[in-house]
């Protein structure tokens, strides 16, 4: 009887596993097709200088437009990473975003581009050469490109990753640590790495003005970043009091729905045009 029950349990378990495997294979096939059929689009979220409110950069955020609906990156980046599809997908994002930002720079003012890197992408053979060729082909100066990594990437395979990032840095591109404060990277790592920027995670910013500890931690991160000579970007600014506090703390840059939502390339185009005509000082 126990055996029978156990057997059934194994069967149920196997059925679950089977369904899971099938789902993953289907997703992998869908992703492959999506890449071939140009179903991926890039949205850009403006990053502003908090002292001047001027747009200094845009962060490229990938979207999968499946049957007229946006699938959020959290749902397909993991599977894309597991199947290796992240490598060609990321290369497309890199080339496309460099090209678009180079055009905006030529027609308006000299904004920068931030790109999120994936662990597998960094380790792909010839990744450094790929970045170099994307820069040359687009005409985007290396100093205008910031590559964002999350702390986890610096902890796993730390040595290899740091070597790769250092190679990238010699191209003249900038490096940022994304979601700063949520991972397990030690502060010592910050000194080992040729990092230019830290991006404070929204989980800190969300508590600004309403949570004493989070406010204190944010202030501490801003000061730490400045003491290390880094650009400090606050992410996830949604409320005016958060913006005010960050300004008062001397945080360098900000990003969030209050400032601007991620938008299609067309949106950046018109944003840059309206900012140009209303302020007149950016050209
Ligand atoms: P991230 O790099 O930290 O990007 C910021 C995320 O916060 C974006 O989500 C953005 O839409 C969202 N966000 C911006 N302002 C606000 C705000 O005020 N409030 C809230 N609640 N959210 C805000 P998204 O686009 O869904 O991207 C999620 C993550 O997926 C990104 O986090 C990044 O880690 C990853 N990702 C996105 N695009 C790419 C890509 O092209 N390549 C790779 N490797 N990863 C990407
Ligand atoms: Mg990012
Ligand atoms: Mg982030
Ligand atoms: Mg994130």
Automatic annotation (TrEMBL):
Signal sequence interval, chain numbering: none
Domain EAL: 24-276
Superkingdom field: Bacteria
Descriptive protein name: GGDEF domain-containing protein
Organism: Streptosporangium amethystogenes subsp. fukuiense
Residues of the full protein shown: 603 to 885 of 885
């Amino acid at each position: 009887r126990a055996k029978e029950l156990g057997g059934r349990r194994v069967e149920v378990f196997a059925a679950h596993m089977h369904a899971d495997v099938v789902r993953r294979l289907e997703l992998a096939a869908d992703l492959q097709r999506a890449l071939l059929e140009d179903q991926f689009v890039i949205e850009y979220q403006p990053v502003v200088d908090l002292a001047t409110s001027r747009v200094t950069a845009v962060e490229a955020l990938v979207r999968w437009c499946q049957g007229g609906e946006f699938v959020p990156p959290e749902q397909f980046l993991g599977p894309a990473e597991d199947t290796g599809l992240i490598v060609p997908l990321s290369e497309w994002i890199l080339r496309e975003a460099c090209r678009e930002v180079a055009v905006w720079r030529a027609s308006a003012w000299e904004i920068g581009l931030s790109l999120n890197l994936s662990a597998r992408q960094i380790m792909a053979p010839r990744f450094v050469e790929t970045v170099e060729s994307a820069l040359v082909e687009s005409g985007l100066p290396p100093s205008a490109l910031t590559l964002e990594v999350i702390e986890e990437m610096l902890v796993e395979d730390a040595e290899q990753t740091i070597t790769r990032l250092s190679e990238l840095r010699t191209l003249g591109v900038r490096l940022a640590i994304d979601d700063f404060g949520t991972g397990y990277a030690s502060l010592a790592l910050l000194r080992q790495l040729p990092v230019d920027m830290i991006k404070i995670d929204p989980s800190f910013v969300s508590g600004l003005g309403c949570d004493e500890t989070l406010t204190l931690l944010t202030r501490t991160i801003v000061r730490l970043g400045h003491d290390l000579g880094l650009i400090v970007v606050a992410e996830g600014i949604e409320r005016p009091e958060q913006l005010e506090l960050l300004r008062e703390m001397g945080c360098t840059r900000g990003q969030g729905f209050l400032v601007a939502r991620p938008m299609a390339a067309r949106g950046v185009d018109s944003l840059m045009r309206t900012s140009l005509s209303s302020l007149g000082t950016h050209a």
